[in-house]
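User: Fold this, then the next.

Assistant: Folding the first:
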Amino acid sequence: YNYNELPFAMYIPGLVKIETEKIASNIDIAPTILNIIEGESYVRPEHFIGSSMFSKDHPDNAVQKCLNGIEYVDENNIAIGNENTSAYSILYSASNYISANDNAKLPDKLKNLIQVTDEMLINNRLVR
């Protein structure tokens, strides 16, 4: 789990120091910066997939997708999957026991994340 930790820091002159321990992905950077700029009046734009690390609705997870593989990390679990092989597994769980129900939900959760990221890529594709 610690291997995947990467601190993120920004320096903005005149801004009071703000810290958060939330888990986030690179898709959360733009909404977080916009939230810092807009302050109390911040509203997440509809076309943003990520969310500000300072918002109450931040999902506190990270998703990484490369080709057909996907990696998912939250405060309790690390899971990987492959869309081509339909193989999904939990690599780590904070609890020593992973319920059959949680394990059964994992493929659907990761498949949904793959679908969302694929749609995002298709809809934002650069056309020559």
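Now the next one, as you asked:
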Amino acid sequence: NCSGGAEATSGTFVDARDGQEYAWVKIGDQTWMAENLNVGNMINGVNDQINNSTIEKYCYENLESNCDIYGGLYQWNEMMQYVTAEDAQGICPEGWHIPSDAQWHALENSLATGTCDPSRRNFGCDPAGSKLAGSYDLWNDGNLRNHIDFNDSGFNSIPAGYRNADGSFSSLGSSSYLWSSSIGGSRAWIRNLNSSNSSVYHNYNGLADGFSVRCLQN
């Protein structure tokens, strides 16, 4: 061991369910997956994901090759495996869980310059968006990837786009939509990164869209 006992701040682990390897990164006192989750069997975007014995995912434009690059897209209930507890494991690997809105805020606030409003319903926490985004060539040209702090955190959020509730797909290359486990009525809190903006969008969203999933270590 050449590290002199220093704690690792990044690495990889294997999801025992399917043998997929994921990168992880430690940011502050949190350890996050540094890739979008890609678990389950692809179903067509025109169909809703349902509560059965199989984890179901959408792949952008119904191409499995897009899941290989961008990860799967999941409706909120499928991601949560049909529970509503904020600390739910959901579809995350053993030892990981779906991050709450407060846990997302802790991440973005640690990367922002100044006070980051946890209750905002818009873009904020500049330049946390650029610090969270990675994989330069996947992002459309804009303020996000051209910011001096691009991928400063190693979180490596990528513009996977999303699956609309009507079954169509949108925003590949320009947006990353990420669920939280925090629900309010018929909606859940999300984070969105956009290629034109170096900050982070925070708002409620309906549960039927298909968004990316990042897991947080327990």
